Amino acid sequence: DLEHEGEEDGGEDEDAAPWQVEQVACGAMHTACVTEAGQVWLWGVSEMLGHSTTLDSWEPSRLLTLDRPVRRLSCGSEHALAVTTDGRVWAWGKGMHGQLGNGMGRKLP
Fold first, then answer.
1. Least enclosed by CB within 10 Å: which of 15, 45, 49, 73?
2. Domain segments of the chain: what residues?
3. 14-32 pLDDT tens trace
4. DSSP secondary structure, the chain, as one string
5. Exposure pattern of 75-90 as b/e (b: 16+ CB <10 Å)?
6. Dist. CA 1–CA 66, nearest whole Å
């Protein structure tokens, strides 16, 4: 058990997520998690979040551009890759050195 100085007990956190997290992955400037339902939630610097936005997000936001459940997720320094339950691989983030596997060498939302 983790102990937090100044806390009386380890009771339930009222702000806790309403879903079970199955996996967490971290990059240099972003973090992602996969829920038991296969949803991907991300937070950090905008370019790594898989959204078409230039805003950083320091609270988890759901990846809505991926419309199928995710089985596994991995984060690189400035990109992420997900394997869906049907075996497809999805990539997003900075791909200036071929990390996204699309041969384009640019960012993808």
1. 15
2. 21-93
3. 666 677 999 999 999 899 9
4. ----TT-S-----TT--SS-EEEEEE-SSEEEEEETTS-EEEEESGGGTTSS----EEEEEE--S--S-EEEEEE-SSEEEEEETTS-EEEEE--TTSTTSSS--S-B-
5. bbebbbbbebeeeeeb
6. 35
